[in-house]
Amino acid sequence: MSETTTATDLDALQPAGDHTRALVATGVGGTEVLDVTDMPLPPVANSDLLVRVFASGVNPIEVKTRRGQGMSALVTHPFVLGGEFAGVVVRAPYELCEFQPGDEVWGMLLSPHYQGSQADFVSVPLQSIARKPKSLSMIEAGAVPLAALTAWWAVVEVGRVHTGQRVLIHAGAGGVGHFAVQLAHFYGAEVVTTASERNHEWLRSLGADQVVDYRNERFEEVIEPVDVVIDLIGNVADDTGSRSLKVLLDGGLVINVPTGSWPTMHDEVAAADRDLKATGLKLSPEGRILTTLAQLFDQGDLQVHVDAVYPLAEAAAAHERVESGHTRGKVVLDLRV
Ligand SMILES: NC(=O)c1ccc[n+]([C@@H]2O[C@H](COP(=O)([O-])OP(=O)(O)OC[C@H]3O[C@@H](n4cnc5c(N)ncnc54)[C@H](OP(=O)(O)O)[C@@H]3O)[C@@H](O)[C@H]2O)c1
Questions:
Q1: Which residues form the Enoyl reductase (ER) domain (predicted)?
Q2: Above 70 in pLDDT, residue 1?
């Protein structure tokens, strides 16, 4: 049991019955389809754990799915929103499981296979959680897993970013971007990123070597060639993806993260005939990576910026904020209220 959760606390954290309060989308549409309602407790089978959620970050995928894009074709309404969370284990699959009731954890749920994280209780597979970093509050920790895992997959697993390279990260001020900037810096690369002017000083403090104001400058005119582009925008704004090819060194790699945002990427890369490599990305919610990320937070090499916190009842305002496309870091739902 954790230092902070006593047996009495733990009793109070158990589900009261076979239902859980949850944020759902009742159909496809605007924020009017969001509702806080009771849903059946998710099935806890095999090595799944039952976790009482304290906080859960809101990511663009939830907004897209609510609007009929993203995972929309794969869900049936009403469905519970949310992918990342921090909370406390209330039920473990067996006595000597490494996570036991009372342990503070963070994790990620892959929709639609698992019910979403913006509920008082989630069922989560053992391999998709890890111990929460001690240095982060529940609110901060709940804002991290999906966005930081995406950044990790882009920078480390797929990008293989390392010392001696120059990396361009589009949308460095966003949820994924601010982790990607820090990870690329941590692994020794020279980091160039794009952001509005108001975010430049902050991004430099996170390790960016050069920040380009994408509203007033053409990045391809002001930066030196790069080895890797981590594209968090695609061609949905100002042909950001296509223009990125102009700054890639021959043999360089472009990673397009928002699925569907740059449909012609492979054709353009082939037409360039410069031995460029191009890939999309789908993150995998692996607890082993969350354990490494927790170490990076606890040793001071990673930080999370929380832009705003909302109670579940104000989820519509949280969605609107993410939908603006200009959050700094993360927006979080507090499920303790
Ligand atoms: N494939 C996957 O598995 C996966 C996983 C996670 C996320 N994604 C996708 O990746 C994308 C980024 O996710 P996120 O959570 O980081 O989004 P986010 O937090 O909503 O991104 C917001 C940021 O985007 C910046 N921005 C907006 N327009 C820009 C432009 N034209 N150029 C540069 N920066 C711009 C804003 O910076 P300023 O305020 O400074 O303008 C803001 O800080 C989303 O489309 C998301 O759905 C995909």
A1: 29-333
A2: no
